[in-house]
Amino acid sequence: MRVSETAAAAPRGIDPRGPRFGAAITSVLLLVVVFLGLTGLSTSRVSDIDPGCVIGGPWLISLATPLERFLDPAFLLLLLVALLFLWGVLSPRTAPWGVLYRKVIAPRLAPPTELEDPRPPRFAQGVGLFVSVIGLVLHLLGVPWGLTIAAAAAFVAAFLNAVFGLCLGCQLYLLLQRAGIVGRARPAAA
């Protein structure tokens, strides 16, 4: 295989500051989801809104209809975050935070000193999507605290990436790559 063929087969690198920028915005959105979850349907008991009810009564979410669960603000915002994660998995070049970074932020910065493989951040978007979907499903099923805990877990991961550059999904990708489960090079066509 010639050098030009090898270069064409290798994935192009990305500016590592881009995913961190996206993680910062995502962490703010997830923090709002956690706040809405802590103050909303997911974590409230009937006794919180009805003083005549016995303290520690049933969870409000278990009495809510599926439509009320769907229209809960925490659910709707986490659904938006999950759709943004999905966008980042399916088309990272057109995902809103990536486009905003490339068009507005990156031109004002010095070029990156090194580029990173785009596969681990893309995998991390998939992990964020998975965690968010788990929270959404648990909420729709009426599981108390399910949405809030899932959003908090996603927040911690996004915050660590944004502030410290520690991408937990990327680390999981590298671990799975070492085990030979993901990221294997495709065999060359004969």
Protein described:
- The radius of gyration is 20 Å and the shape is elongated.
- The longest helix is centred in the first third of the chain and has 23 residues, at 17-39.
- It is built from ten helices and no strands.
- The chain has helices at 3-9, 17-39, 46-49, 60-63, 66-70, 73-90, 96-105, 119-140, 146-164, 168-178.
Q: What level of helicity do the residues show?
A: 55-70%
Q: How many separate helices?
A: 10
* pLDDT averaged residue by residue: 89
How far from one another are the termini? 11 Å
Number of strands: 0
Whole-angstrom Rg: 20 Å
Based on Cα principal axes, name the global outline: elongated
User: Quaternary status of these chains?
Assistant: single chain
Q: Which secondary-structure class do the elements indicate?
A: mainly alpha
Which H/E pattern describes the elements?
Answer: HHHHHHHHHH
Summarize the main sheet. none
* Spans of at least 5 consecutive residues with low confidence: 1-8
Note the beta-strand portion. under 5%
Keywords:
65% helix; elongated; disordered N terminus; 190 residues; 10 helices
Q: How are the SSEs placed, and which strands pair?
A:
Elements: H1 3-9, H2 17-39, H3 46-49, H4 60-63, H5 66-70, H6 73-90, H7 96-105, H8 119-140, H9 146-164, H10 168-178
Helix pairs in contact: 2-6, 2-7, 2-9, 6-8, 8-9, 8-10
Brief write-up:
By secondary structure, this protein is mainly α. The protein has helices spanning 3-9, 17-39, 46-49, 60-63, 66-70, 73-90, 96-105, 119-140, 146-164, 168-178. Helix 8 packs across helix 10 (168-178).
